[in-house]
Amino acid sequence: QSPTMAIRELDRAISELRLHAPILFTNVNGRKLDDPALWPVYARVEKLGVPLILHPSRSGKLLGLERLTKFHFDNALGFLYEGSLAIASLICSGILDMFPRLRIGLLETGCGYLPYLMDRLEEVYDTEGVDKLIRKRPHEYLDQFWLTANVSREKETLVHVVSRYGAN
Q: 25 pairs with which residues across the strands?
């Protein structure tokens, strides 16, 4: 909630405790990841040379959370939404241009949605003026992301994702 305190704790965690990466929810009390208040945190993560790990939030700020509780849809659909919004926000806002050495690890969202998301972001790039906000096409930022795959459930989908974007 406090970028200043987050930076102080980040320095301590990486430098003193020797942790490998900080983790941040995909929204901070409803604040999207492209909020300028978070930019100093990204600058420090980039300077420290560690990846920033994102985990979907199950907080009350998750879109439609009250409708996602049955069948554990908060995990199956809510995490997918949160991960997609995080990727889209970081790419389309220019955050990844401002911090080109920032690496993002996204946990528990799977990877099967990636081709669809990239197709839609390419459309946004071409039709909504995003081409004036960022330096590259959306899919060209994928080298700054690590996504986790649910290997037991995404076997067939993973083959498609890897064939389209590569295994790395």
A: 55
Nearest one of 97, 82, 103, 101 to 33, comparing CA atoms? 82
Helix (H, G, I), strand (E, B) or coil at 53: strand
Strand ranges across the sheet with 52-55: 23-25, 52-55, 104-106, 145-147
Residue appearing with tokens 């220019």: 94
Helix (H, G, I), strand (E, B) or coil at 25: strand
159, 75, 146: which is closest to 112 by C-alpha? 159
10-residue stretch averages of pLDDT, the chain, 168 residues long: 94 96 88 93 97 83 72 82 93 97 93 93 95 96 90 87 88
Q: Is the pTM of this model over 0.85?
A: yes
Distance CA 114, CA 159 (A): 12
Residue 55 backbone class (left: φ over 0; alpha: ψ -120 to 50; beta: rest): beta
Residue of 117, 59, 56 lying closest to 92 (CA atoms): 117
* 144, 104 Cβ separation under 8 angstroms: yes
